[in-house]
Every structure is written in structure tokens, then in C-alpha cells.
Amino acid sequence: MTGRGRYMPGMDPINLAPALALTLGTYALLASLAWLRRVSAEKVAGRRNGILLNLARRAGPPVIGGIVLLIAGTVFGVIGAGGVAGVLVAGGLAYGLHRGLDDLRANDKRVLALRLAMTAAISMTLIWQAGLF
């Protein structure tokens, strides 16, 4: 874009979806470590199964929607469907794991701040190394 446009060199708008998916995926990965630690510590099998069902209930629909969008975008040749599908899948997992940790009362402010800081540091490093921005 030339002239008065707001386009900045080095910033490509098509890279926004993969960068957001990478950030959400990083948070989901860090949250899954804490979630797995809490679930594996549960001694009662019924409670463990309930925790797993809650994760499937919260994260399942966006993940399935992202997979369907990815398949439909590939079949119909929609540009950018892969990035949006990645955001749906990573966002669904991040949301499901975050809410699951809230249910287990494992999301106090200190732990959440540390997880967010680690997410920012790791994802920004990966985005920079990948050359997305």
C-alpha cells in the first residue's frame, strides 16, 4: 500500500492469525502442564473423569469447528482458512484448560501472571524467530 495508507513495512496482516494461534497455543501448552499435574494428582477416578469431561465440553466445540473449517477451506480453496482454524483450535484448548484450572482452583493471580508472562516471552520469541512480524 502506498500513499496515505497505514501499512508498515515488515507487518503483513495475513500473519496476524498464525501469530495469534501461536500465542494461544503457547498458553494452552503451559496451562496443560498445570492441568495435567492437577488431574494426575486426583485419587478418585470419578472426579478425574469429571475433570476430563469438563475439558471436552469446553474445548471440544471450538476444536471440532477449527478442524471442520480447515477441511472446508482446503476443499473450497479459501485463503487464510488455515490460520483461522489454528486460532479456533488453539483458542478452544486455551479456554478449556484455563476454565478447567479455574474449576480446580489452581488459577490464583500469582500463578496466572507467571503463566501469562511466560506465554508472552515464549510466543514473542517464536514469532520473531519465524519472521511473522
| Domain module tally | 1
Structural class comes to mainly alpha
Whole-number mean pLDDT: 87
Report how far apart the termini are: 17 Å
Overall body shape: flat
Assembly of the depicted chains: single chain
State the total count of DSSP E strands. 0
Low-confidence stretches are: none
Helix content: over 70%
**Proportion of beta-strand residues:** under 5%
Order of secondary-structure elements: HHHH
- How many helices in DSSP terms? 4
Transmembrane segments: 65-91, 112-131
Keywords: Membrane, Transmembrane, Transmembrane helix
Any overview of this molecule?
Keywords: Membrane, Transmembrane, Transmembrane helix. With about 130 residues, the protein is mainly alpha-helical. It has one domain (about 15-130). The protein has helices spanning about 15-40, 45-75, 80-105, 110-130. The radius of gyration is 18 Å and the shape is flat. The mean pLDDT is about 85.
